TrEMBL record:
GO terms for biological process: protein O-linked glycosylation via N-acetyl-galactosamine. GO terms for molecular function: xylosyl alpha-1,3-xylosyltransferase activity. It comes from the Eukaryota. It comes from Prymnesium parvum (Toxic golden alga). One of its GO terms (cellular component) is endoplasmic reticulum membrane. This is Hexosyltransferase.
Amino acid sequence: MACVDVAFLMSGPVTDLHSLADHVRASSSVPLCLHLVADSAEKASLAQRWRMQFHSLAAMPREALALHRAFANLTHGPGAVYMWKPLLHLLLPMRRLLLLDSDVAAARDFAAAAAARFEAFGAAVVGLAAEQAPFYYLNGYPQTGGLNGGVQLLDLEAMRRSREYNAELHRFAAGQRGEIGFLGDQNFYTSLRALRPELVHTLDCGWNRQLSTHLWGAMPSWVYECDSPCSLVHGNHPTFKAAIAMLHREPPAGLLSCAKCEAVIARSIAYSAAAGITRLLAPAERYMWRTLHQCCCAGAAGARTAFAQLLWSDRAAARKTHPADAPSHGALLAPDGF
């Protein structure tokens, strides 16, 4: 059986690659071929150690390198790094690719479902889910919002073949579409969907269930909501990046479970309570802890579906104990919900 190709693009230090690879492999019922796309050959040994194929960005063809240099002049912050993603069809030889950020975890067997999603593309060459924070509604796209780049389904073969897609790459690089900015590929794909909607397939929100609290309160909460089953959960917020990394390591390896998530959520809150950090239970964070819990526990027998009412433990706050002595997750769960 042919494998499903899954890739990670990493620039700078690489940490916890083994737990990420183990989690993704154990979450799939179909064979996976994992790929690491990185900016230095030194990372090749890490990829080999964890049975991943290594691809150096330096091996991009001359045309792609020239495009990326032009993109870099139109971005700031990490935007230039993100702009390697729209060029991967010029580096990677495979037909189709699932491109994941490293702060993503699997709640369902996403790889087995990928083929059906690709078949729904029609004329599209890329698939991304909506941005689940109000940034784009407030910045140029009040009717449609924008797209989030944490989970991408890339039809690399179609990208190579599409004159329209490659022409747009050159128009963006020439500055004809304006600045690309801090968010790089997200801004690129959001703009591309507005200009050439046939090239971009909007994935169901459950393919990239985001935990960002960015601009919380600037718009009604429906912006952050998703009614679809959660396949991949994306910790695109500092607090939740740490939680996703913990979930990658939480035994047993594989799909998120209710027990795993309750343990990690409780441990995160207990550590913060012991340190006197209160922001983890601000209204926005409460909402996102509940979202993570629902992703893990939907349909689970005996799931604590009222987990959203997270409260500080009086014992933890009063004792200021070492986190290892903080109360168990049962002490942190309110029984009645909101």
